[in-house]
Amino acid sequence: MKNLILTSLTVILNFTFLMGQNTDFEKMVNKNIKGTISTIDSKSLYSKISNHIPVVLLDAREINEYKISHIKNAIYVGYNDFDIDKLKTINKNKTIIVYCSIGYRSEKVAEIVSKNGFSNVYNLYGGIFDWINQDFPVVNSIGVTPKIHPYNKEWGKWLEKGEKSYE
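Below the sequence we write its predicted structure tokens.
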């Protein structure tokens, strides 16, 4: 009985300790985003998409990144050339999820979207890097692809999965 209690206590303490630990990727993401926009994680987004819950996906990366791969049905809006007028046909009550590589650029775009009257705006936590690392699919103009643009070689170290392409 004593051993069972000690083993149970050890498991609980280890679980509590591990749950409080952030991965290096999470630490990097948290360092780069400000939390000005609510986030959604990759698993929750995948669940919404899989269950046909309507969302509008906005890709806030640059066009060369988007062309290599993006989340299916994402609308390219860019970052450096983002223009809120690109969204004038979208109902402002729709759920909008903005993503980029890790969440920095998408947070900035999401702030603009939110300030322009869209009421349900989210930033994809960890961006498309986390999406890929969770084994969720991306597409290009041909269909599903393993390729992902790593932004640059320094940021590419955060991609654990997928085939890095700098095209």
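Residues 2-20 have pLDDT under 50 and may be disordered.
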